[in-house]
């Protein structure tokens, strides 16, 4: 299973943004084209940039496009443990299991994200995607007593109920019977061979105790609890996956519980394998025929929630505890999960009190044609451990309107693979010959053109890590925090990585965060 590319969702958002951005086409020309038209290209890099970081308040971790389980130790930020609470539902409600039923085995299967390759001999191999770390963890699976609602009663049952990253202790309080423990678990990229003709894509596959599901499901045949999934979810409130007793760095993996394609063969599920046969003279013993083998399914297509437990590096916690929102910071911290966001504010103060930053007024008066504008974020290699621990992508968005910038709509690189998508607007990490990250370039040409030539509102911008830049949903914060942070891109929550960037207040002039504006003036 591959991480889903959300191109259809992107196209829907694209249509909306294109309408918003269509008026910008007059001057959104690359500088080289303008030079051909006898214009001079100049660089303005004196724009006032102020940036600082904030630890996010708890974020919504229900209704995510994918989920995580495990533990990850970041060399800068410390250890994070991610647990999962998930409803299960009956694939077939009001089931009739037949007569002379014998439940033989119960198997949980959660497929990993993988890349599949078949050679010329027809042999298929897999490469794990979104699996981080290779040290063992222990996963305990509990029955949960916490009821996960679909709809929010405080919103008159018209909105989805939201659950948040900090609710682990609440779920612990409703922790029920221990169903199973998976010891020394490390994800494997090998296919799971069931028999000579059948195999499964790599995934977590474990046998669960038959007695528990016999009592919980099969003994309840014909009851009101199984007649529909509303009743069933009230009766069997879900499974709580907890990562426990981790002594090393452990591992973390991402997965899609239900990909929505109506094909259960690649969805997470619980198979309950059983046999039955017809009664003869009202008894099972007199039927000497071989029993019929079949399976009943439990799906994971209800409500699911990730919870995060972070052991944040005390040095990082101290650095972001009281950000300098007036002068900016020397270092900027960005981390995924329920992590850390950096805020960028452009063009300085409004000293004359007319509602527009003085520097922005100056730029508007110049009547420049904006050819290109970039924010360059340099990695602080004195702090960051390079290589695979660094996030390949960071993204920028409009904090004032909880939306992406207009530049998203005109990026020509919307490819099928997330790693190669949107590289014009959100360029991947530029790495040196040693493989360590040097800088990120975020192109915000249309946004700056709107501010200078279209009188758009100068909103604060948010910078976060992204796991999948083709995921365009936002997740709410439990509470708003300054300067108007109400939600964050879901792709940031799905990311486990973090980095440290030079801010606007660093003494390292060559690595200082700056805004580059390339402009032209008619001769």
What would you note in describing this structure?
Keywords: Signal. Residues 1-21 form the signal peptide. 14% of the residues lie in helices and 36% in strands. By secondary structure, the protein is mainly beta. The termini are far apart.
Short structural description:
This protein is mostly beta strands and 523 residues long. It contains nine helices and 31 strands.
Features:
523 residues; mainly beta; 2 domains; eight-stranded antiparallel beta sheet; DUF4270; signal
Present the secondary structure layout.
Elements: H1 7-21, H2 31-36, E1 39-44, E2 49-55, E3 67-74, E4 78-86, E5 89-90, E6 102-111, E7 113-118, E8 124-129, E9 131-132, E10 137-144, H3 168-173, E11 175-185, E12 192-193, E13 199-200, E14 203-208, H4 210-216, H5 229-235, E15 239-244, E16 252-255, E17 269-276, E18 292-299, E19 304-312, H6 314-321, E20 331-335, E21 340-346, H7 358-366, E22 369-378, E23 394-398, E24 403-404, E25 430-431, E26 437-443, H8 445-453, E27 461-465, E28 474-481, E29 485-489, H9 490-493, E30 498-502, E31 514-522
Antiparallel strand pairs: 1-31, 2-21, 3-4, 3-16, 4-15, 4-19, 5-18, 6-14, 6-17, 7-8, 9-16, 10-11, 10-15, 12-13, 17-18, 20-30, 21-27, 22-26, 22-31, 23-24, 23-27, 25-26, 28-29
